[in-house]
Design brief:
Length: about 160
């Protein structure tokens, strides 16, 4: 069982470390010519501060320890799952699904959800599809990155 709590300023270094762990694990799936590194800002303290100030930022607490985070951007017509991550040693244990669904239940107004994830990240694709998201768009390859993106959506709940 996890706890979902709003992120505090005092949580930032632990969350930054968890994000680095999660996205470092993803490096093994990238195409050979892809730009290394995770999403912009995931490893920068100041960016985590900005996410707290501008968006809804939640932490995943497991047995009293922060093991991941989730950033939600609110738009007029939908919610955007801007990022979700768990420390690499907690991936594949069902915790991510519990965390994602718990966060989404905090927004009961029945708006649709959108997110994007790299096209090479097959593990993410299975995760989002398992949690009710469907592909709405596949972008072309971004030459400066070495990969493209898949946009997922989940319709408004009934």
């Amino acid at each position: 069982m996890i706890e979902i709590q709003k992120v505090l300023d005092s949580d930032i270094e632990v969350l930054r470390s968890a994000a680095i762990s999660a996205f470092l694990d993803d490096e093994r799936y990238k195409p050979e010519n892809a730009l290394p590194g995770g999403p912009p800002g995931h490893d920068q303290f100041e960016e985590h501060v900005r996410w707290i100030r501008k968006h809804d930022y939640f932490k995943c607490v497991f047995h009293g320890n922060i093991i991941g985070g989730c950033i939600v951007k609110k738009h007029p017509s939908h919610y955007e799952l801007y990022g979700i991550f768990l420390r690499s040693n907690f991936i594949g244990k069902g915790i991510g699904s519990e965390f994602l669904n718990g966060v989404m239940k905090m927004y009961p107004d029945r708006s649709p959800w959108l997110l994007e994830t790299p096209n090479y990240s097959k593990r993410n694709h299975r995760f989002y599809e398992h949690n009710g998201f469907t592909v709405s768009l596949k972008t072309n390859l971004y030459p400066n990155l070495g990969y493209g993106f898949i946009i997922y959506q989940k319709p408004a709940s009934k």
